[in-house]
Specification:
With 388 residues, the protein is mainly α. It is 55% helix and 6% strand. The protein has helices spanning 2-10, 17-38, 90-98, 105-108, 112-133, 141-144, 178-188, 198-213, 223-229, 242-264, 270-275, 280-294, 313-337, 340-356, 360-376, 382-387, and strands at 43-53, 68-78, 165-167. A three-stranded antiparallel sheet has the order 1-2-3. The longest helix has 25 residues, at 313-337. It is globular. The two termini are 44 Å apart. The mean pLDDT is 85.
Length: 388
C-alpha cells in the first residue's frame, strides 16, 4: 500500500501517504470535537460491531495487523421532539426507578387501542398485496391513492425530517459479548437505559420465524417446503443472509395472501373480481375476513388428549406462519416510515412471538423497554418519552 501511494504521489496523481494519514487523523479529531459539543444537548448514543479485513496477501508475522480486526463503531444521534432539555435530567429517572414495581401480566398485554390500530394496518397490508399483483387495480389512482386504503399514522416523525448524527472513533473493544458490552460502556460513556437496535430487532425476528417454521421440506406448509418451491438454496443455515431471507419471506407472505384473495373474492378469478370495480370499502371488508380466516390461529385445546384426528395441522401451521409474517411486515414498514407509534402498538405481541420462538434475549429487551415506558419515563412529556 505504501509503495502504491509513493508511486502515485511522485507522479502527481495523489497526495503522499503521510499526508493521507494526517488528513484522516485531523478529520477524526474534528469529528470527535463536534460530537463533544453536540453531546451537551439531547442525544442518543448508538453503537454496532465492525469487522475490518485486510488483504489475503498480507504476510502474518509477529506485530503485523491481523487479517480481521473486530471492534465497535459508536454514533451520536439527535433526539427529535425534546423541547425542554430538563426532561432528560437523570435525577427524576432515578426517583422513578426507586418507586418502580415489577411488571405484571396486564402491563405487557397489548392495549385495546394498539390492537385496533394493528388490525386496521394489517387489513391495508392485505389490500396492498392485491393491488401490487393485480395491474387492473393500479391502472388509476382510485385504489392506490384512496384515503381509506392508506396506513394510519400513529406517532410518525415529521415529514422530510433529517436526523443529525456524529460518528465517534472506532474502538477495538468487541461488543459482541456481554463482557465486551460492559467494557465498552465503561470506557466510552455512562449508558443509563439500553434499547434494541431496530434493524437488529427485525433481523432477529426474521431468524426467529425461520427457526420456528422451518421444519422439513417434505412437510406441507413449512418454510423449507416453500423454499424448495421457490428454489431458494441459500436459506438452509441457522442465520442466512438477511436480504435473501426477507425477500423469500415477503414472497411467501404475498403468495399466501393472493391465494386467500382468490378464495374470498367471490368470483371465478381475480381478473373478474378486478373487472367488477369493487369499492374500497368492500376490499377492506374482504381483507378483514382474510385476516380472521387465514391469519388467525384456531384456539388450541388445553390438553393433548382433547385433540381430534380430524384437526387440520397444516391449516393451523399456515395460519400461524401468515400471522407471524404479517407482524414482520408491520414492523418493517413502521420502521421504514419512521412511525414508532406503530412499533409500540405491537411490541407486546413481538415479545410474545420471540419468547415462543426461543429468542429469550430479545423478549427480555422488549420487556425492559416496556418497563421503562411504564415507570422510568412516567412523568415525562409525551414527545420526550416517544423520542427516547
Amino acid at each position: 500500500m505504501f509503495c502504491v501511494f509513493a508511486a502515485l504521489s511522485h507522479s502527481g496523481m495523489s497526495m503522499s501517504f503521510t499526508t493521507a494519514l494526517n488528513t484522516v487523523s485531523m478529520l477524526a479529531k474534528r469529528a470527535v470535537a463536534r460530537a463533544a459539543v453536540f453531546s451537551m444537548g439531547p442525544h442518543m448514543f448508538t453503537y454496532d460491531n465492525i469487522n475490518l479485513k485486510t488483504s489475503i496477501f498480507v504476510e502474518q508475522v509477529p506485530g503485523a495487523m491481523p487479517k480481521v480486526q473486530s471492534g465497535t463503531f459508536p454514533i451520536l444521534y439527535e433526539l427529535w421532539g425534546v423541547v425542554n432539555p430538563d426532561d432528560l435530567l437523570l435525577q427524576p429517572l432515578l426517583d422513578n426507578l426507586k418507586v418502580a414495581k415489577d411488571l405484571t401480566l396486564p402491563d405487557v398485554l397489548p392495549t385495546i387501542e394498539g390492537q385496533t390500530y394493528y388490525l386496521a394496518q394489517t387489513e391495508i397490508t392485505i389490500v396492498k398485496a392485491l393491488l401490487r399483483y393485480m395491474p387492473d387495480f393500479s391502472k388509476t389512482d382510485r385504489y392506490t391513492a384512496h384515503p381509506a386504503l392508506q396506513y394510519t399514522p400513529r406517532r410518525p416523525l415529521p415529514l422530510n425530517s433529517i436526523k443529525k448524527f456524529y460518528p465517534l472513533k472506532t474502538t477495538t473493544i468487541e461488543e459482541a459479548s456481554i463482557d465486551g458490552n460492559l467494557q465498552f460502556h465503561d470506557e466510552t460513556r455512562m449508558v443509563f437505559t439500553i434499547g434494541s437496535g431496530l434493524f437488529h430487532l427485525i433481523m432477529n425476528y426474521a431468524w426467529c420465524l425461520l427457526n420456528k417454521h422451518r421444519f422439513k421440506a417434505t412437510q406441507l406448509g413449512s418454510l423449507s417446503r416453500y423454499f424448495l418451491i421457490l428454489e431458494k438454496k441459500r436459506l438452509a443455515g441457522e442465520k442466512p443472509d438477511y436480504h435473501t431471507l426477507m425477500a423469500a419471506l415477503g414472497q411467501i407472505r404475498d403468495g399466501l395472501l393472493m391465494d386467500a384473495w382468490r378464495q374470498k373474492c367471490g368470483y371465478a378469478s381475480l381478473e373478474a373480481f378486478a373487472a367488477s370495480n369493487p369499492a374500497p370499502g368492500e376490499l377492506t371488508k374482504i381483507a378483514s375476513e382474510i385476516l380472521y380466516e387465514f391469519a388467525t390461529p384456531i384456539p388450541e385445546p388445553l390438553n393433548d388428549s382433547d385433540r381430534k384426528p380430524s384437526d387440520d395441522i397444516i391449516n393451523q401451521n399456515t395460519r400461524l406462519l401468515l400471522r407471524d409474517l404479517l407482524y414482520l411486515h408491520e414492523l418493517t414498514d413502521a420502521v421504514s416510515s419512521g412511525d414508532f407509534g406503530r412499533i409500540e402498538d405491537i411490541l407486546p405481541d413481538i415479545a410474545a412471538i420471540f419468547r415462543g420462538g426461543g429468542s429469550n434475549n430479545y423478549c427480555t429487551e422488549i420487556l425492559h423497554l416496556l418497563d421503562d415506558c411504564i415507570w422510568t419515563y412516567l412523568d415525562f412529556p409525551d414527545t420526550s418519552c416517544r423520542s427516547i
